[in-house]
Amino acid sequence: MEEVREERTHTHSVPEDEDGPPMLSAEALEALKDFLSDQNRNGEEEEEVALLAEDWRLSQFWYDRHTAETVAKEKIDPNVSLKLLEYDKRFEQYGGEFTFYDYNQPEQLPSSLKNAYQIIVADPPYLSKECLEKVTQTISFLVQPGNVYLLLLTGEVQKDRAAELLGLHPCGFRPQHSSKLGNEFRLFTNYDPGMRLGGWEPDQ
């Protein structure tokens, strides 16, 4: 489960010189290109190292890249503070962004997380009523009062429970996994995404 707390960022403008914007020499431009190229390569190497293999014993089935990017771009600004709630302690490599979480103890979390988040992306490990009920308790613990954005990725079989417990509606977008799973997965939201995410499916 991943939670997001929105934070304000500030930008400062710098006045341009009256004679026009400053120009770099050809040598300086080349040095800058080399530096940026090295930075990009280093970033890619770090990202590769950070990837973890699925552990099916923990009901881990990673989404494919398109699904992950679609969900991340929906409401997650790259400048906001993220918190990953996860049972698998291999994710401790992400430092302060990781918090150990066992859905069987839905509110056994640091008090600093209580009512702290406006955006929550939940991906329960199991397709059972009990699991979704306990994850719902965790969501209630985490959300800020007022307007919140909930995104739930889970199996089609949870459709009625998602509506009953969290007031969520299915979107047209269909999450896909890197590994082929027999269960059809859906993305549910508590807000109307408009034309994004395939929109809300009409009530049947």
UniProtKB/TrEMBL annotation:
Do you know which Pfam families this protein is assigned to? N6-adenineMlase (PF10237)
User: What InterPro entries does the annotation carry?
Assistant: DNA_methylase_N6_adenine_CS (IPR002052), Efm5/EEF1AKMT1 (IPR019369), Mlase_EEF1AKMT1/ZCCHC4 (IPR041370), SAM-dependent_MTases_sf (IPR029063)
Q: Name one GO molecular function term.
A: nucleic acid binding
Chain spans, region Disordered: 1-24
PROSITE patterns per record: N6_MTASE
Please tell me which top-level EC class this enzyme sits in. Answer: transferase
Q: Which spans does this entry mark as compositional bias, Basic and acidic residues?
A: 1-15
Q: Give yes or no: UniProt keyword Methyltransferase.
A: yes
Q: What is its main location?
A: cytoplasm
Question: What subcellular locations does the record give?
Answer: Cytoplasm
Q: Which GO terms describe its biological process?
A: methylation
Methyltransferase among the record's keywords? yes
Entry GO CC: cytoplasm
Alphabetically list the UniProt keywords. Cytoplasm, Methyltransferase, Transferase
What family does the entry list? Belongs to the class I-like SAM-binding methyltransferase superfamily. EFM5 family.
Entry function: S-adenosyl-L-methionine-dependent protein-lysine N-methyltransferase that methylates elongation factor 1-alpha.
In Swiss-Prot or TrEMBL terms, this protein is called: Protein-lysine N-methyltransferase TEA_010295
